Amino acid sequence: MIFKRSERGKAPVEPVTLKILVAGGFGVGKTTLVGAVSEIKPLRTEELLSEAGRPVDDTSGVSGKHTTTVAMDFGRITLREDLVLYVFGTPGQDRFWFLWDELATGALGAVVLADTRRLEDCFAAVDYFERRSIPFVVGVNCFEDASRYPADAVRQALDLDPGVPVVMCDARERQSVKEVLIGVVQHAMATAAAAREPATT
Fold first, then answer.
1. pLDDT tens across 19-69, in order?
2. Which of 127, 124, 16, 139 lies closest to 80 in space, CA to CA?
3. How confident is the model at residue 50, as a pLDDT?
4. CA 91 to CA 136: how far, in whole Å?
5. pTM of this prediction?
6. How close are the terminal C-alpha atoms of the chain, in Å?
7. Which of 25, 82, 107, 128 is the most exposed place for a label (fewest CB within 10 A)?
8. Nearest CA-CA partner of 110 in 11, 26, 34, 7
9. Around 46, how many Cα atoms within 13 Å sit in the side-chain half-sphere?
10. What is the signed CA dihedral for 172, 115, 137, 24, rounded to 10 degrees?
């Protein structure tokens, strides 16, 4: 556990640690996102794409991609002295989905990273978090050669509930990613607060 001193002479502060998942399709930028925001050297479990995986790994639209995450990416970011986020990137291919349940255990919320050129690739992640009632934010990774669409158009294309935030981001930029993660925390807190409110009759 991490301990820090807030001011000289004061007792160490034991930070609250929160777990956030980053999910989405193959090649959407999950590993890049975790690496951009992590204050430690991120743990990566990447392997080179192989001929054996060619029949099951759809590389259309990501022809420059040569590696793939086979277990998870892991990073850490301190938002405040008393608040630390652990960020876990999930593998994107269908054959690694058995890992998702383990990674999702104890998660506060998630980012579903989307690429407007291959928006259908994030349908499975959206369905996964909806079925498990895990609060999530859709982060549209704005690739340079991708068309730009307003958040409402993305929301409609993904058939999202009105309360699910949709934000534009650049997975390479630390500040952009940090704002997305803060959005996840805020959305998860708002969702939890709404669930605690007594039902009106």
1. 999 999 888 999 999 999 999 988 866 545 444 444 454 555 545 545 554
2. 16
3. 46
4. 17
5. 0.79
6. 45
7. 82
8. 34
9. 18
10. -90
Rounded to whole angstroms, the Cα distance separating 35 from 26 reads 16
Q: Which residues contact 53 (CB under 8 A, 6 or more apart)?
A: 68
Percent of the chain with pLDDT over 70: 76
- Cα–Cα distance for residue pair 68/194, rounded to 1 Å: 38
Cα 77 to Cα 20: distance, rounded to the nearest angstrom: 11
Q: Alpha-carbon distance 174 to 67, whole Å?
A: 22
Residue pLDDT, tens place only, 79-109 = 888 999 999 998 866 666 678 898 899 999 9
Strands (E), the chain: 4-5, 12-13, 16-24, 43-48, 67-80, 83-89, 109-114, 136-141, 166-169
Query: Can you give the pLDDT at residue 7?
Result: 55
Instruction: Give me the residue label for tokens 């650049």.
Output: 170
In sequence order, which ranges of the chain are alpha helices (DSSP H)?
A: 30-37, 100-104, 123-131, 151-158, 174-196
CB 153 within 8 A of CB 137: no
